[in-house]
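S.,

Sequence below, as promised.
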Amino acid sequence: MPAQKSPPAIRLVDTPRRCDRRDGLGCDYMETDVIKFDVKKRVSGAVQFTAEIEASEEELYGVKLGLAVIWAMENNTDLYGANLYGASGVNNYVKCIQIDQYPITYTADILQIGCERHAVADWAKFDDQRIVEMEGKSALKFWRKYKAWIFQTIDLCPAKPTGYLNAKETP
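The prediction came back faster than expected:
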């Protein structure tokens, strides 16, 4: 049986070097290689998948994580439960908003407000009692103030579907 071929590595740019402006002193170039990058589960911290990305080991964590997310989407890898906090460069697929006390992150089908993560359709159906059960009256006050705005934002700036669910359904 022939060896299974690895999916191609994801590159940040089309050149083998990229500018590193973190020192604020101008442009130094980092050499890049194909590296393995572990994406961990949000709750347990265990490795969920390992992506092959083109980056420098010294690259910022958020940039490497963003490349790993893009790799995962292109390779139909399940991102459910992955810790994507700080991922950079995935704005078409993962949208982030910070208002008042809660960070809001959403994808094409999942909405997370603070530590509560549910399907977008489920959030739309939650009544006041369900919101109070999540985090009390302050959460209800937030929800009443921003619910319509959050869904309007999702409608105006939708996240692109990753294709993972569709890939699972097709043989």
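The chain has a mean pLDDT of 81.

Coffee later?
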